[in-house]
């Protein structure tokens, strides 16, 4: 009876540690989300082209971004052939982060060295 | 998503007419009444707009609750710019007919493409995701 109790305790502790480790590793997948959120915040006001997963490309000025990398664009225009006529009367839009494929940025607005250093720093922090 | 300056928020868009693009390709136009952190939306006096070529047709739908994961984009409709110049509004039956014809044509071309690919001994892997777009 006592032995059974000890086994149970052992299993509980084991599971607890296992879940803790899993949780620790899972967090690190999202650590770069904070980095890119900060990165996009620094690009507010710049002109970008957002390509969505449904192949729609929208050109506009980056108004704001949030932690899910949802993007708000102002003064939008559909770049490629306007086979999407329903967007004609829309000037501002909110794009859900999960449907973005690419965000095309002007090359001179991005300090790639800074970005590289920041990413490296994040990766180092996560390792510890 | 809200109450933080400079973050993308839908709070200011409430009670304004919006155009919502859904993942399955549908377009809904309605007054945004409610939001949450997942971009779930409540639309009032919603109209489903079907576009075929230069024509479009509206189907009144009432109140819509849209799950956030199906939203592609949400755009504020500028009431002054609701241009009917380029686009021509037609009746519901007509636009549904046009849509059916378009879908059929698309299916035909897809079938032919698949056939051509098969003949060459290749295969297009089936997209396992739920995305339709």
Automatic annotation (TrEMBL), chain A:
Q: What's a single GO MF annotation on this record?
A: RNA binding
GO BP, sorted A to Z: mRNA splicing, via spliceosome
Q: Does the keyword Cell wall biogenesis/degradation apply?
A: no
- Which Pfam family, just one, is annotated for this protein? LSM
Identify the SMART domains for this entry.
Answer: Sm
First-listed, main subcellular location of the protein, grouped into a coarse class: nucleus
Give the GO cellular component terms, alphabetically. catalytic step 2 spliceosome; Lsm1-7-Pat1 complex; P-body; precatalytic spliceosome; U4/U6 x U5 tri-snRNP complex; U6 snRNP
Location of the Sm domain: 35-109
The record, for PROSITE patterns, names: SM
Which stretches are transmembrane?
12-33
Keywords, alphabetical: Membrane, mRNA processing, mRNA splicing, Nucleus, Ribonucleoprotein, RNA-binding, Spliceosome, Transmembrane, Transmembrane helix
Subunit structure of this entry? Component of the precatalytic spliceosome (spliceosome B complex). Component of the U4/U6-U5 tri-snRNP complex, a building block of the precatalytic spliceosome (spliceosome B complex). The U4/U6-U5 tri-snRNP complex is composed of the U4, U6 and U5 snRNAs and at least PRPF3, PRPF4, PRPF6, PRPF8, PRPF31, SNRNP200, TXNL4A, SNRNP40, SNRPB, SNRPD1, SNRPD2, SNRPD3, SNRPE, SNRPF, SNRPG, DDX23, CD2BP2, PPIH, SNU13, EFTUD2, SART1 and USP39, plus LSM2, LSM3, LSM4, LSM5, LSM6, LSM7 and LSM8.
Give the protein name, as stated in the record. Answer: U6 snRNA-associated Sm-like protein LSm2
TrEMBL record, chain B:
Coiled-coil region list: 92-120
Where, subcellularly, is it found? Answer: Cytoplasm; Cytoplasm, P-body
Domain Sm per the UniProt entry, residue ranges: 5-80
One term under GO cellular component:
Lsm1-7-Pat1 complex
Task: Give the highest taxon in the source lineage.
Answer: Eukaryota
* GO MF annotation list: mRNA binding
InterPro entries in alphabetical order: Lsm1, LSM_dom_sf, PTHR15588, Sm, Sm_dom_euk/arc
Self-association or partners: how does it assemble? Interacts with SLBP; interaction with SLBP occurs when histone mRNA is being rapidly degraded during the S phase. LSm subunits form a heteromer with a donut shape.
Q: What does this protein do?
A: Plays a role in the degradation of histone mRNAs, the only eukaryotic mRNAs that are not polyadenylated. Probably also part of an LSm subunits-containing complex involved in the general process of mRNA degradation. Probably involved with other LSm subunits in the general process of degradation of mRNAs.
**What name does UniProt use for this protein?**
U6 snRNA-associated Sm-like protein LSm1
């Amino acid at each position: 009876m006592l032995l059974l109790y000890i086994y149970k305790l052992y299993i509980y502790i084991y599971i607890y540690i296992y879940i803790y480790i899993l949780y620790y590793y899972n967090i690190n997948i999202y650590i770069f989300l904070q980095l890119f959120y900060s990165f996009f915040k620094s690009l507010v006001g710049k002109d970008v082209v957002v390509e969505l997963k449904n192949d729609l490309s929208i050109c506009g000025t980056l108004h704001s971004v949030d932690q899910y990398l949802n993007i708000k664009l102002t003064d939008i225009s559909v770049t490629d052939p306007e086979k999407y006529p329903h967007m004609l009367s829309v000037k501002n839009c909110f794009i859900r982060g999960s449907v973005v494929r690419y965000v095309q940025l002007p090359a001179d607005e991005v300090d790639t060295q800074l970005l590289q250093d920041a990413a490296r720093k994040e990766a180092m922090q996560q390792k510890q | 998503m809200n109450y933080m300056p400079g973050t993308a928020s839908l709070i200011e868009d409430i009670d304004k007419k919006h155009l919502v693009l859904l993942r399955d390709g549908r377009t809904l136009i309605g007054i945004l009444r409610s939001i949450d952190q997942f971009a779930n939306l409540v639309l009032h006096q919603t109209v489903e707009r079907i576009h075929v070529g230069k024509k479009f047709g509206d189907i009144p739908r009432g109140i819509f609750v849209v799950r956030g994961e199906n939203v592609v984009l949400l755009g504020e409709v500028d009431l002054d710019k609701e241009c009917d110049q380029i686009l021509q509004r037609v009746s519901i039956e007509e636009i549904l007919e046009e849509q059916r014809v378009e879908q059929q044509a698309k299916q035909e071309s897809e079938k032919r493409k698949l056939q051509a690919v098969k003949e060459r001994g290749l295969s297009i892997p089936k997209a396992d995701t739920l995305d339709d777009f």
